[in-house]
């Protein structure tokens, strides 16, 4: 988290500062100082996230920020994706379904807060949530978009928060599959 964002979070005890979760009221509270409502919210979100995360823990950002957990669930449900089991920080996994390098590095400066996502066909989407995009980033993303290898979408609707932008790289087929699934779910529910 950026120092500026951290400064807006209020903790009343050292234990909360050191081990607490940041709640939607921007208070940081540890297990001991969490309210009953805090505990209920966290348990409820853990249950809702189970189909999205499986046995995995909350990714960076959502690990300590409960509002990011809420946004992550809404985002993943809207996109029809689940968190992938990969530590790839570059484009290997999205390209080939695996990351075979021993030390995986970002393929660009925009690859900050990277998470990878699957749909029922496999690797679907890489989400990067940088605090902003530099001209070099825009040129690189433009190149990836025009190559036709990925569908690139940039908007403000990620889940990380703190003013980050959402850069979505979709495998072209996966984007259509997830969109069609969304449409059929809307029709089923109507
Ligand atoms: Zn505490
Ligand atoms: Zn990799």
Instruction: Estimate nothing, just give the exact number of structural domains.
Output: 2
Query: How do the strands of the widest beta sheet line up side by side?
Result: 3-4-5-7-6
Question: Termini distance?
Answer: 40 Å
Low-pLDDT runs of 5+ residues are: none
Helix-strand string: HHEEHHEHEEHEEH
Q: From the structure provided, what is the oligomeric state, counting identical versus distinct chains?
A: single chain
User: What fraction strand?
Assistant: 5-15%
Number of helices: 7
Task: Please count the beta strands (DSSP E, at least 2 residues each).
Answer: 7
Residues in helix, %: 40-55%
Short structural description:
With 190 residues, this protein is an alpha+beta fold. It has seven helices and seven strands. The model has no long low-confidence stretch (mean pLDDT 91).
General description of the model:
The protein contains seven helices and seven strands, in the order ααββααβαββαββα. The longest helix is centred in the N-terminal third of the chain and has 18 residues. By secondary structure, the protein is α+β, with helices and mostly antiparallel strands. The chain is globular. The strands form two sheets. It has a five-stranded antiparallel sheet. The protein folds into two domains: 77 residues, no CATH class; 108 residues, no CATH class. It starts with a helix and ends with a helix. The chain binds zinc ion (2 copies). One zinc ion binds next to helix 5.
